[in-house]
Amino acid sequence: MKIIHISDIHLTVPGEEMGGLDPHVRFNQALRHVAEHHPDAARIVITGDLAHWGERAAYEALKTAISGLNIPVRLMIGNHDDRAQFRAVFGDHPIDPHGFVNHAETVGETRFIYLDSVGERTHAGHFCSARRAWLAAELESCARARIFLHHNPMPLGLPAEDKIALIAEHRAPLHALIRQHAAKIDYIHFGHVHAPVHGVFAGVPFASVPSTGNQSLPDMNESEFLQGAPMAPAYFVICTEGKDTTIHQIPFAWDGPITRTGTGWEDWAKPTVAAE
Ligand SMILES: [Fe+2]
Ligand SMILES: [Fe+2]
User: Fold this and answer.
1) What is the pLDDT of residue 265?
2) Which of 7, 103, 120, 262 could form a disulfide with 47 if both were Cys (CB 3.0 to 4.6 A apart)?
């Protein structure tokens, strides 16, 4: 199965730039690339920061952009989003009994669990006891799961970035819950970092995907300022086979030269007769 993972599209009110680029152009470029190269994908999963400032017009633009796709799209919110505005535009979007944008579905043999890790007026992630109870019930009732959310649930060794990770108070109990069900959770996928980071959390492998807009620079010394740059955007193609996962990072905006070479030995070998 192929799953497309896109994140941090940061859509603005159409016409407004974000970080020196038009996020709508980038997002639509990514969607066209997916439609052309991966029409067989089972899902497009967008892990939050859908809008840059949470305006209604940004969500309406998102709704229009994804309306004609043949691949089902699943949405999560991030710290830049406004839950009420999101729900006003996506009125029939599933929520949990507390109004959080937690939702889940079974795709093939696996429960895809989409989490709402947003706190009020903070860039840091929150996953309170009510949300944990919802996740616990999901994990208890399924045989296999794959988790998607916006925030990194773990610190990454980047002092400034770690200030806006999932708060420590909520991290420990989530870690315990994940650890308890680690044997049935194939992977944790998130965004927020605007960079590819990979590792293992509570016994479960994880991966964050770059943004379709600006990227962050990993700085293991800076403790105050987040640093970004208009480096190459990407989305992920997550390929699953049973419990196995392979993740490809797709540099969809690359428009420079591309070389082509065969895979046979002679296609790569150094010429045996040196030029005279
Ligand atoms: Fe973001
Ligand atoms: Fe974020």
Assistant:
1) 87
2) 7
